[in-house]
UniProtKB/TrEMBL annotation:
Residue ranges annotated for the L-asparaginase N-terminal domain, each copy included: 100-330
EC number(s) from the headed UniProt entry: 3.5.1.1
Region (Disordered): 69-90
Lineage per the UniProt record: Eukaryota, Metazoa, Spiralia, Lophotrochozoa, Brachiopoda
Annotated active site: T228
GO BP, sorted A to Z: aspartate family amino acid metabolic process
Biased composition (Basic and acidic residues): 75-90
Family membership: In the N-terminal section; belongs to the asparaginase 1 family.
Protein's name in the database: asparaginase
Native species: Lingula anatina
TM annotation in the entry: none
Length: 479
């Protein structure tokens, strides 16, 4: 299992600390806030009429009542795949007077350089180059308004003797003032080593979550720069690891490095910083190609297009165009009256098996052999499998009797598992739990999370798999 126990965010001694953010960096961030007035960075983004916190609360309650995690029928077939989609009940983004964002740079194409004809990560390159881009850093304003006043973040770092020798981390970055009179001040924490997302593991998910937990109280939002290949897995995992999340966590990256003449990285990072600092959406999300998607509803759809991520069964939470429209009635309600809690124990003994017409019993039995504790079954259509294959159903039944949790999702890009077909009922009888309309990424990470919860009984775990924990599914409940 990934290391780590239950954490109460903002309290107790942190398990992992960010070793590379300098004392000066954090001090300047908070020192700026008495002088900064925040609105936005993008010209052309109009500021909506201010919505009071009471109205926001009412919207959240309405979303909860109407089922903010429900399936595609809730939005009449409109998903992130539909170019014509616009939030029907969207509101313009409400800008804060001041905000600060922590950027965790884990790796990925967005910060790579070409060496010997191939893209490779280069330490300390990203933050230094961001300082040279006026859309990401207003050096004149920083020099004019910098202040050395200490704050609790500085004090915490001093207690822990945090190293501040990383190049490019002597001061935070400040996005330029736009017509909305808004600033976002942010720190970039660069991971060492920088990872290609193909190499991301459960331990890396736990590290990212724990770093966010460590500075949860000190920032208004968080941005994770991440490679695109496994971004949806990381987003899904983080969504389950945080309970009662009260702040936005946004993953983004790019298909072309941000410093190339033609790159999608600039818009993606700008959008992520704005939304992390101002949206107040308490979810783990992916921002790509001007769409803000729920992380555990997202999947990488295209290996080369700028429109790389889709949310096939749920609409975007926000669309960033000439105005930023937030689809507040689709936000999954978070219990912000409770303390945000982090669970990092994930079970690594899980896997995904895709049905195909010539699959043999021996293959399935071998896949389900110990130490496997949970399996996501990608079945045909609306959750169907060959009910004439009694040998296959018997293997599933045997695994269930050994305590292996089996979760059924569809192979189709859109749609849901339905109990209406006899071929689907055969799987349910064999002990395979219907997974509604979950993506493969959400199903796998949810399975790892549920099995890892040692405080839940076996029956509780079965029920939790088909409950809508973080907005990851819709539809019927099987139990």
């Amino acid at each position: 299992m990934a290391t780590g126990d239950q954490y109460a965010v903002g309290k107790g001694k942190p398990r992992r600390l960010m070793r590379r953010i300098s004392l000066a960096s954090i001090g300047e961030v908070v020192g700026y806030f008495g002088l900064l007035r925040i609105r936005s960075v993008l010209d052309g983004v109009s500021c909506a009429k201010k919505i009071t916190s009471e109205v926001d609360d009412a919207i959240i309650k309405m979303a909860s009542k109407n089922g903010a995690g429900s399936v595609a029928s809730d939005f009449e077939g409109k998903t992130s795949m539909d170019p014509s989609y616009r939030p029907e009940k969207g509101t313009d983004l409400e800008y804060k007077d001041k905000s600060r964002v922590l950027v965790l740079y884990t790796g990925g194409t967005i910060g790579m350089r070409i060496h010997d004809g191939v893209y490779t990560p280069e330490p300390n390159f990203l933050v230094n180059e961001l300082r040279k881009l006026s859309i990401f850093h207003d050096q004149e304003y920083v020099v004019k308004h910098s202040t050395p006043e200490p704050n609790f973040l500085v004090n915490e770092l001093r207690k822990l003797s945090i190293s501040h020798d990383q190049e490019g981390m002597n001061s935070p970055l400040c996005m330029p003032l736009s017509k909305e009179k808004a600033y976002v001040v942010y720190c970039v924490y660069e991971y060492e080593p920088l990872l290609d997302s193909c190499n991301m593991t459960m331990d890396d998910w736990a590290r990212i979550a724990s770093d966010i937990k460590t500075y949860y109280e000190g920032f208004d939002g968080f941005v994770i720069l991440h490679g695109t290949d496994t971004m949806a897995y990381t987003a899904s995992a983080l969504s389950f690891m945080f309970e009662n999340l009260g702040k936005p966590i946004i993953l983004t990256g790019s298909q072309i490095p941000i410093f190339e003449t033609r790159s999608d990285g600039r818009d993606n990072l700008l959008g992520a910083l704005i939304m992390a600092g101002n949206s107040k959406i308490p979810e783990v999300m992916i921002l790509f190609n001007n769409k803000l998607l729920r992380g555990n509803r997202s999947t990488k759809f295209n290996s080369s297009s700028f429109d790389a991520f889709h949310s096939p069964n749920f609409p975007p939470l926000a669309v960033l165009e000439t105005e930023i429209h937030v689809h507040r009635d689709k936000i999954f309600p978070s219990n912000t009256t409770q303390e945000c809690t982090l669970y990092t124990d994930l079970c690594p003994s899980v896997g995904i098996l895709r049905l195909f017409p010539t699959i043999t019993t021996a293959m399935v039995r071998q896949f389900l052999a110990p130490p496997l504790k949970g399996m996501v079954l990608e079945s045909y259509g609306a959750g169907n499998a060959p009910d004439s294959r009694e040998d296959l159903m018997q293997v599933f039944s045997e695994a269930r009797e050994r305590g292996v949790l089996l979760l059924n999702i569809t192979q189709c890009h859109r749609g849901s598992v339905s109990p209406g077909y006899a071929t689907g009922q055969a799987l349910t009888v064999a002990g395979v739990i219907p997974g509604s309309d979950m993506t493969p990424e959400a199903a796998l990470t949810k399975l790892a999370f549920v099995i890892g919860r040692e405080d839940w009984s076996s029956e509780d775990k079965k029920k939790k798999l088909s409950q809508n924990l973080r907005g990851e599914l819709g539809g019927f409940m099987w139990y």
